[in-house]
Design a protein that fits this description.
Structural class: alpha+beta
Strand content: 15-25%
Distance between the termini: 10 Å
Helix content: 55-70%
Shape: elongated
Number of helices: 8
Number of strands: 6
Radius of gyration: 37 Å
Mean pLDDT: 85
Largest sheet: 4 strands, mixed
Length: about 290
């Protein structure tokens, strides 16, 4: 099955008085690249989330957005550095005695120092929240893969139609190629006749035509294009990622078309080659979106 690398998935699940929302979008990319944006309290689950996604997605750049609404995931607590505060109090007491200050050391003075007392957020993600989060991710991934498969089917239809058009052009080139050699022979005979007053060296003409036929022969290129089209069609029916193989076949098709174009000594062949390369370019654009 042909799968597109472009898709979108969304899912939300409630847990107690909170809401977990997951959005996933993917675009074409040479490899699988998963990027997560989520509350820092969920960072310990990053590997599990990525593994869950990679079970269904083999290739593409995947952006994952996770949002948590409701009660805070963090438990706030006060941390007191008793050793530091003790040194502060002792130092203040020494200042008081040394300079004969009569003011009393107060709590507000200690707090105004701004150090020694710290408020910290401690993550408290429960097993229940983790389970619901993974379920939400899984549901979003299901939507994503469904969309990628639907778009992949459309890509396959388009590519098959273009392969059929390519086949028609190749068949036409197979018909034109022998005629080019015959036309060349006629031109050679005409020119020789004009210069030698009707006396023709048949062996010389045969040699010239044979050299031209060898130089202008495109039968091997056409045979390889038929083979590449057949492999393309087979790959479209295969399971698993096929994008890289199709990309390679597109490069090979383009190379054969360029070779035919360089050998072409006929306006009709040149016209067909231009159309052939245009179709290959359009297939290349579609293949870049196939997983």
């Amino acid at each position: 099955m042909v799968v597109s690398m472009t898709g979108f998935g969304h899912s939300s699940k409630e847990i107690d008085s909170s809401l977990i929302t997951v959005e996933i979008k993917s675009v074409n990319h040479r490899f699988l690249d998963i990027n997560l944006k989520m509350p820092k309290q969920f960072m310990s689950m990053e590997d599990r989330i990525k593994k869950l996604i990679s079970k269904s997605v083999n290739r593409g750049r995947v952006e994952v957005y996770i949002n948590f609404e409701g009660e805070s995931l963090a438990q706030r607590s006060i941390q007191i550095d008793w050793n530091l505060l003790t040194q502060y109090v002792q130092s203040l007491q020494q200042l008081k005695e040394r300079f004969s200050f009569h003011d009393e050391i107060t709590l507000s003075q200690i707090l105004s120092l701004g150090e020694g007392i710290d408020i910290r957020d401690e993550a408290t993600v429960s097993e229940k929240i983790e389970t619901v989060l993974l379920q939400t991710v899984e549901a979003a991934v299901k939507q994503l893969t469904d969309m990628r498969q639907i778009e992949g089917q459309q890509l396959a239809i388009d590519v098959k139609n273009r392969l059929a058009a390519m086949t028609e052009i190749v068949v036409n080139l197979e018909k034109l190629a022998p005629k080019v050699v015959d036309q060349y022979r006629e031109r050679i005979e005409k020119r020789v006749t004009e210069f030698v007053s009707g006396k023709i060296d048949e062996n010389r003409i045969l040699t010239e035509v044979a050299l031209f036929a060898d130089k202008a022969d495109i039968s091997e290129e056409l045979t390889r294009i038929h083979s590449h089209i057949h492999q393309f069609q087979e790959s479209l029916q295969a399971d698993g990622p096929i994008g890289r193989k199709l990309d390679f076949l597109v490069q090979e098709l383009n190379r054969e078309a360029n070779t035919i174009g360089s050998k072409a000594n006929d306006g009709k062949i040149a016209k067909d080659v231009v159309e052939l390369k245009s179709i290959i370019e359009k297939i290349k654009e579609q293949v870049q979106n196939i997983e």
